[in-house]
Specification:
Length: about 325
Amino acid sequence: MLVPSGARAQRADDRYDALVRQYARGDQQDAAVELARWSRADVSAAGARAARFAPDAQRAAVMLHTDAGIALLSASATNLGVLHLLTASHIVGAMRDRRGDHLFERRWLSFVATVYTANGLLGSADRTIRDALSWYSREPLLYVARGALGEMRIAMTFVDLRSGNQIARRDRAYDAAAADYRRAIGLDDRLAIAHLRLGSVHFTTHDGRARENFDAALERATEVRDRYLAELFLGALAERGDRLDEAERAYTAAQALAPGCQTPYVALARIDHALGRAARAGEAAAAFTAIPEKSNDPWWDFHLGGFDQVSLAWLHAQAQAP
C-alpha cells in the first residue's frame, strides 16, 4: 500500500521529536547513533523543524546532530557528518534571535570550529570562525580556535628550510596565531587554554616567554586537562634545557593527573634512558601497558587542532533536560 507523503512526513517528525527527547533525558549515544542512520533529506527536514523548537529542545537537538556528525566524521563519512554539523549550525542560528548572553551558542561555535580543524576541514573551520566572530567579536574561545587553525595550517604546509621566503611566511603565521591567543587572554586572562596555546607557539619558536605562559596556565587551570598539558609542556621545556630532574618532576605530575594517558609514560621512559636507567625505562612502558582502561590523551587533541573535550562535556550538560 502507498503511504501518503504527508503521513510519511508526520511519522518522520514524530521519530525526530522522540529522538530529541531521548537525547535530552541522557540517552545521548543511542539517540545519536540512530540519527546518524538517517537520509540526507530527513536530516535537512529535521533541522528545519528544530529551528522552531523551544530553547531547551533546541540545545538538545544541536548536540544530537553534533554527536552524530562527529561519529560520522570518525567513520570517514565526511559529507554526511558535515551535513549534521551544518544542520546544528542552522539551529544555532535560529537560537541567536532570542535575547540572552548566548553562552551556549558562542561555546558551540568555538567547539565546532575545533571539530572541523581536527578533521582537516580547514575551510569549514575558517568559515565557522569568521561568521561567529561577526556575531560574537568578544568571545575569547573563538580567537583560541582561530589561532589553533592557523597552527594547523602551518603543520600541514611543507616548509623548505633553505627558503627564506617560506620561513618568513611560516613565522608570520606563528605571529598571527600568537596574536589571536593574546587577544583571547586580553578578553579573559583566566582562560588557561589560551596561555597554553601561546606557550606552545613560543616553545615551538624557541621564544623565552614560553615558561611564563605555561606557569600562567598552571596557575589559572581549573580543568584537569589544562593542568596536565601545562605539566607536560613544563617537562618538555626542562628536558630541552637538559634539566632532567626538573623534567622528571613535571612529567610525574602529569602522570598523576592522567594515569590512563600514554604521553607521560613515554616522556618518563625517555628521561630514564637519558639518565642511564634502562631497566626503569622498561618498567615505565610496562606500567602503561598494564593499565586496564586507557584514556583519550589531551596531548594529541591539543596538537591535532585542539579538539575541545572540555567544551564538549559542558555542551552535553547544557543539552540535558532540566
